[in-house]
Amino acid sequence: MKIAIVGTGYVGLVTGTCFAEMGTEVYCVDVDEKKIENLKKGIIPIYEPGLEEMVNRNFQSGRLKFTTDLKECINEVEVLFSAVGTPPDEDGSADLKYVLEVAREIGNAINKYVLVVTKSTVPVGTAQKVKHAIQAELDKRGVDVPFDIASNPEFLKEGAAIKDFMSPDRVVVGVESEKAEKLMTKLYRPFLLNNFRVIFMDVPSAEMTKYAANSMLATRISFMNDIANLCEIVGADVNMVRKGIGSDARIGSHFLYPGCGYGGSCFPKDVKALIQTARQNGYPMRLLQSVEEVNEDQKTLLFRKLDKHFGGNLKGKRIALWGLAFKPDTDDMREAPSLVLIDKLLAAGCTVRTYDPVAMDEAKRRFDDKLYYAKDIYDATVDADAIILVTEWKEFRLPSWTAIKKLMNIPLVLDGRNIYDIAELEENGFIYHRIGR
Question: Among 17-31, 83-97, 290-304, whose mean pLDDT is lowest?
Answer without folding.
Answer: 83-97
